[in-house]
Amino acid sequence: MRYNRSRSSDQNFWVSYADLMAGLLFVFILLIGAIVVKYVYVQTDLKGIKNDLEAQKKVLHIAQVELSQKQRDFLRLRSDMNVTSASLQIAKELLSQKESSLDEATARLQLSDREIENLKKLLLDTELARDEVKGELVASQMELGTTTNTLKLKEGELALLSAKLLENSASHQQLVEDLNLTKSRIKNLTGIRIKVVQELKSKLGKKINIDPNSGAIRLPSSVLFDVGSFELKPEAQKQLKETLQPYLDVLLNDDTIRENIDHIVIEGHTDSDGSYMHNLDLSQKRAYSVMAFIYSLDEKRTALLQKYLSANGRSYSDLILKNGVEDKEASRRIEIKFNLSNKKAIEEIETFLNRKE
Fold this sequence. Notes:
Blueprint: H1 2-80, H2 85-109, H3 116-204, E1 217-220, H4 221-224, H5 234-253, H6 255-258, E2 261-269, H7 276-297, H8 302-308, E3 309-313, E4 321-322, E5 325-326, H9 328-331, E6 333-340, H10 343-356
Parallel strand pairs: 2-3
Antiparallel strand pairs: 1-6, 2-6, 4-5
Helix pairs in contact: 1-2, 1-3, 2-3, 3-5, 3-10
């Protein structure tokens, strides 16, 4: 009986021991499972963190590429527009600062997991700075557009000014040409007068004095008229014919000379003896007598004479002085002179002045 009790007690011990070991084994298995599960969770979290880190790196890389592109665009805008160089320089410095921040952020990404939150915050700050730079770039582009429009307006104004300058240059050239033509006309009139004077000297020779400047001739009244008379002396008519015939031939027979003659005038002059009105009447009648004699020389030339010839008395309004004293003998005279027509020259001068205005 004792033996059986001892045996039963041993069996119970081992059963209890086996149960205890089984329980300990179960607990150990549970502990191992918990450790495995915890490890899996930890690995999953680490993988997620690493994925987030890689994603952040990609985002930062894209941001860096975009910032590099903006930097190149910014540099190109700066080279195109010197007007906005100051603003672009500021943006460039800001980009450089942000690029330095990005470099620092990239370095921080290589740190421990405990700094990931700091990197996320830094990434947020970088994105805000990037948006700020984009805003500045948009403002710079708007300013560039405004400047471009202003330049276009200035180019339009410059084109108008250039066209106006070209038009003024053409007008000025035309005025110069017209002025040169007018000068040529006036010079031509002077040349015609010289030609007439030379012809008169050639025709009349030394018979009578001819004014070298005006081409006028002077005939003493004492040779043509008696004192106080306006009738031509018979002996003076032959001399007067020999003088006046060739003088009028030179002026009226040559077409080139005649078309430039405005009129031929016979002037009677007296000395200062007597009243002005009496001398005016006498000088006028003497001038008419000479003109009537010219008409009698050649009736075929009457039409030309009517067109060009005139006579008037000057009394003593144009005395001849010698050393400041009246020369009465020289003052009593008949003058025959001609005037050239300057109508064309005057018209051309007026046309030139009107164009200039």
